[in-house]
Design a protein that fits this description.
alpha+beta; Pdz3 Domain; seven-stranded mixed sheet; three-stranded antiparallel sheet; 18% strand; GIPC1/2/3
């Protein structure tokens, strides 16, 4: 009788003790002495692999007849392997942006790349010229002079040449406020240094003649202000008591021989001019730098208007800050939405409501052609 390897269909097997109710054979019966449970086969196989002896029911050499009776399971053809998908194409990367740079007082030309904000830019310049990043006061574009029209702000044209102005002489000046305003416009370099961007003609500071555009304000009454933002420094100066003398410690940019004796005052009519070129690298204090199209006419005019309002209300000039304000308000429908958007990105400034309404009006005037 051929050996059965599947279900037992024998009626007699159902009367044997130890049979599983699903009719799988677990013990040999008289009718089929060679049938063995598949579960027991696997158990015996594991015992043999582990080196354990088998019981008399399952141990012993097979006879030749038994080997011939074994049913050979047919081998099903395996499915052909699925064709491998080709690797994805490499991402289309922009070419690396490389900028040329020099120290403003004179140096060989260096090449820098891989920066995303002003602090990283200063670190790259310092690495090229083997100086400390803290030596750099500010940078100008396409001019080695202390020219506030060329001041590096939040944008760099892809073909702009960067000049780094480093620390020069330190001087202390005693100032007595004779008016509510000193006549100073303050900005900062984005890396902790506030400096003078404009001096109002005929003002208290203008009469001193020793304070110059480009001077870094290092301390007020021996209190260091390194690390303070421009609006914080402007507020400190505004809070000085009228008629009471105070001391400014200033650091002027290092000058080349052909610049000694100059006192630069940026003309008001052209200050704040945007960089030229088809694309610019936009530097952000938070987040990565991005390559953008040059601001359109609306953005350029609105940014200039907002920068003027920053000077009027806060005594500072900051094109990057002004551009951020315009970006927050250009697509808003009402002043409340504008104020909410501005608070989400520039909440630290705590702008007064009257300033926000004037800025909203200025943006609307430019948008509607009322300028």
């Amino acid at each position: 009788m051929p050996r059965v390897t599947g279900f037992c269909t024998c009626l007699q097997c159902h009367k044997q003790d130890g049979l599983h109710r699903s009719c799988w054979v677990s013990l040999p019966c008289e009718a089929h002495p060679k049938i063995q449970s598949p579960m027991k086969k696997r158990r015996n196989s594991r015992l043999m692999q582990n080196g354990e002896s088998m019981g008399p029911q399952t141990q012993g050499p097979k006879s030749t007849a038994e080997e011939e009776e074994e049913e050979v399971q047919p081998t099903l053809p395996s499915a052909p392997p699925a064709p491998q998908s080709p690797p994805p194409p490499p991402p289309c990367l922009r070419p690396r942006l490389v900028f040329h740079t020099q120290l403003a007082h004179g140096s060989p030309t260096g090449r820098i790349h891989g920066f995303t904000n002003v602090k990283e830019l200063y670190a790259k310049i310092a690495e090229v010229f083997n100086i400390s990043p803290s030596e750099i006061l500010f940078c100008t574009l396409n001019s080695h002079k202390v020219d506030m029209q060329k001041l590096l702000g939040g944008q760099i044209g892809l073909e702009d040449f960067i000049f780094a102005h480093v620390r020069g002489e330190t001087k202390e000046v005693e100032v007595t406020k004779t008016e509510d305003a000193l006549g100073l416009t303050i900005t900062d370099n984005g890396a902790g240094y506030a400096f003078i961007k404009r001096i109002k003609e005929g003002s208290t500071i203008d009469l001193l003649k020793t304070v110059c555009v480009g001077d870094h304000i290092e301390a007020i009454n021996d209190q260091s202000i390194v690390g303070c933002r421009h609006y914080e420094v402007a507020r400190m100066l505004k809070e000085q008591t009228r008629g009471v003398a105070f001391t400014l410690r200033l650091v002027e940019p290092k000058k080349a021989f052909d610049m000694i004796g100059q006192r630069t005052r940026a003309p008001k009519s052209s200050e704040g001019k945007m960089v030229s070129g088809k694309e610019t690298l936009r530097l952000r204090s938070k987040g990565t730098a991005t390559v953008q199209e040059v601001p359109n006419e609306f953005e350029e005019q609105a940014t200039k208007k907002v920068d003027d309002l920053l000077e009027s209300y806060m005594g500072i000039r900051d094109l990057e800050l002004a551009a951020t304000i315009v970006e927050a308000g250009k697509d808003k429908k009402n002043p409340d939405d504008f104020a909410e958007a501005l608070d989400s990105v520039l909440g630290d400034f705590a702008f007064p409501d009257v300033f926000l309404f004037d800025v909203w009006g200025a943006i609307g005037d430019v948008k509607n052609g009322r300028v």
